[in-house]
Amino acid sequence: MGGRREEILEAALAIADERGLDGVSMRAVAERVGVTPMALYRHVGGKAELLDAMVGHLLSALLPPDRSRDRQEPQRWDERLAALARAVRAMVRRHPWAAPLLFSRPAVTPDAVRAVDVIYDALIEAGVPDREVPRLERLLSTFVIGFAASEVSGRFTSGDPDPRGHRGSHPEGGFPAHARLTPWLRLPADLATEFEADLDDVLRLIEAAAGR
Amino acid sequence: MGGRREEILEAALAIADERGLDGVSMRAVAERVGVTPMALYRHVGGKAELLDAMVGHLLSALLPPDRSRDRQEPQRWDERLAALARAVRAMVRRHPWAAPLLFSRPAVTPDAVRAVDVIYDALIEAGVPDREVPRLERLLSTFVIGFAASEVSGRFTSGDPDPRGHRGSHPEGGFPAHARLTPWLRLPADLATEFEADLDDVLRLIEAAAGR
DNA sequence: GCCCATAGGTATACAGTGTAGACGTATACA
DNA sequence: TGTATACGTCTACACTGTATACCTATGGGC
């Protein structure tokens, strides 16, 4: 059975959560499973395939079990999209190592396609013309993944922490707009509410695209 | 002088362009410079710092030389933002290896801060309230970098190439929205015009935020 | 009972990685 | 002349992914 494969995957996930993606070496995974490194190759094709399987595993937990055909979806389209977006962000925050992989690996696993289908469905219900649906799906998912990736990789938080002394303006007027915005740049930027505001804006963008 | 450091950087850039980011090993760079691997450590602190310097080098070429105070910026705010966005996309397409690094390394180099300042300035001119400017800068840059990264890493192009036989619907009605959109999913998705359409939408989003 | 194919695991080995540490040398300044 | 500093080399270490070869236990057909 594929029980062993599952065991390997769980071990790799645990190591990634504990020690980061760099900690996931074939030897480390093998040791955790209690087996020789080369034994892994019988179950996963290699390191690349192992990484793919890891993100696939995470994606499979994104959506609730597929009862979408049994019962009517309760929420409005925008609430469904927002819920999915929040789920992605939460997943990336729990497993920061997954962020770079989400960009490189295309969504080909059945679970990933299922998620895309949920987005398509919501966009159609929103009134987006069929022709525009794939584009707006890519726009939305790019933003959500990009936000989460930026967040966990420090691209947002460590940006420009009061540069060059505590006065607002840079030496010799280097960055005038920064100077003017100093009071707002000083705040630590609550990323949870920022995500909600962004999400709101993007959903309005979709509404606008639907009404054309 | 730092001439040697520049030489090392150029060598690393050239290797990344030719053989990808994985080709950039200390040994490879050293060989190209004509020196022993350990000699690099006198000029760049280590591999991580080398990578940082590489993206810094690319960013420094993004904006025209700083004459922003000599002459008035000619274009409207939205044209300026669009130009910068297109420049980022072009840069990533020319140097695909840079995409993942742009997400992880925060914008702390002077050139990066200068680019952010340009965006701030445009957003202010657009009429965005000061309080909202940093957020919308992050939203815009996240989208632009995310789009470019997705594009060069194959997240867009290799998505679902007519899955499971050439009929639109999946076996046993797995993905209804996919089925409905089949005609549009079949097109190869012109990413250049898609980028322009997205950009247009995001700039409208900014306009909407300005008018509140 | 016998035989053998197959699945799963092990041992060894190879080429490559980043970099710590010790050592050398040449130039510039006191 | 002496010495400090910048720059480079050499060696070595602890890793990485994985190709290859070998071993072992289990199950099915005869």
From TrEMBL, chains A, B:
Cited InterPro entries: Homeodomain-like_sf, HTH-type_TetR-like_transc_reg, HTH_TetR, Repressor_TetR_C, Tet_transcr_reg_TetR-rel_C_sf
Keyword DNA-binding assigned: yes
GO terms classed as biological process: negative regulation of DNA-templated transcription
Domain of life: Bacteria
DNA-binding region: 25-44
Annotated spans, Disordered: 155-175
Pfam family, one: TetR_N
Protein name per Swiss-Prot or TrEMBL: TetR/AcrR family transcriptional regulator
Lineage, opening ranks: Bacteria, Bacillati, Actinomycetota, Actinomycetes, Streptosporangiales
